[in-house]
From TrEMBL:
CDD domains, per the entry: MMACHC-like (cd12959)
Organism for this UniProt entry: Ceyx cyanopectus
Protein name per UniProt: Cyanocobalamin reductase / alkylcobalamin dealkylase
Swiss-Prot/TrEMBL catalytic activity: apo-[alkylcobalamin reductase] + adenosylcob(III)alamin + glutathione = S-adenosylglutathione + cob(I)alamin-[alkylcobalamin reductase] + H(+); 2 cob(II)alamin-[cyanocobalamin reductase] + 2 hydrogen cyanide + NADP(+) = 2 cyanocob(III)alamin + 2 apo-[cyanocobalamin reductase] + NADPH + H(+); apo-[alkylcobalamin reductase] + methylcob(III)alamin + glutathione = S-methyl glutathione + cob(I)alamin-[alkylcobalamin reductase] + H(+); apo-[alkylcobalamin reductase] + an R-cob(III)alamin + glutathione = cob(I)alamin-[alkylcobalamin reductase] + an S-substituted glutathione + H(+)
This enzyme's EC code(s): 1.16.1.6, 2.5.1.151
Cited InterPro entries: MMACHC (IPR032037)
Subcellular locations according to the entry: Cytoplasm
Cofactor or coenzyme needed: FMN; FAD
Pfam families assigned to the protein according to its UniProt record, in alphabetical order: MMACHC
Gene name as annotated: Mmachc
GO cellular component labels: cytoplasm
């Protein structure tokens, strides 16, 4: 059942630059404190959705151009919402819950921890402080970061698709690819991500097969109010 659902999701989202990776809610809840648990039975089928570098050209630009959309929030968020909502229509016989990466609980906690979800689904390895043996940071707060075996840091975790009516007792959990395996590289990765994230060097901690285009990097580096002008779409925004 999980593979059939995955095939339909890949068929809908793959051509527009997304990846989907299956997991059981219990895998996710098992590694987190109860405050962050997803409120579903352990065997509930879920998928983490990633955007790859090609999403910009395959999904975002066509969406902005075609929709002539009234931008009420971040265009990327609206584009993701559009595509994941469309996916729900592919499953008229199933209940599908969508949680987006930017959604918050009333407590201001995120509705899900994106990097943990990517790790337990085997999509990307979540490197954290505990993965470095000789820790040089003392009392500093050090944030972890996911690295994709193909895209390095050139990707984003966009949301979850949950199927409350599908229970998968025998789904095998894949291990994420430990692509930053040396202690030196892990230290370098966390150092760059925490203290030099603006220059993006952490994204290339491993050789990557694809990265964001110059246009895409320029888009995300541009203040939000000027981004449509950069793409030649400013006159289409309401």
């Amino acid at each position: 059942m999980a593979e059939r659902v995955a095939e339909r999701l890949r068929g809908a989202l793959g051509p527009v630059g997304f990846e989907v990776h299956a997991f059981k809610v219990g895998w996710y809840n098992a590694v987190l404190q109860p405050a962050f648990h997803l409120p579903y039975p352990d065997d509930t089928l879920a998928f983490v959705v990633l955007s790859t570098p090609s999403m910009f050209d395959k999904a975002l630009k066509p969406f902005l151009s075609k929709e002539r959309v009234k931008l009420v929030r971040d265009p990327v968020d609206q584009c993701i919402s559009h595509h994941l909502s469309h996916v729900k229509e592919q499953f008229p016989e199933q209940k599908v819950d969508v949680i987006f990466d930017y959604e918050m609980l009333p407590s201001r906690k995120p509705k899900f921890l994106a990097q943990t979800a990517a790790h337990v689904a085997g999509a990307a390895y979540y490197y954290q402080r505990k993965d470095v043996k000789l820790d040089p940071w003392g009392k500093k707060k050090i944030y972890g970061v996911c690295i994709h075996p193909k895209y390095g840091g050139w990707f984003a975790i966009r949301g979850l698709l949950l199927f409350p009516d599908i229970q998968v007792l025998f789904l095998q959990q894949p291990a994420p690819v430990d692509c930053v395996s040396s202690q030196e590289k892990r230290l370098e990765l966390l150092e760059q991500f925490n203290f030099h994230w603006q220059d993006g060097r952490y994204r290339d901690i491993i050789p990557v097969k694809e990265r964001y285009s110059e246009e895409q990097r320029a888009y995300f580096a541009t203040p939000p109010g000027d981004r449509l002008r950069l793409l030649g779409l400013a006159n289409q925004a309401q």
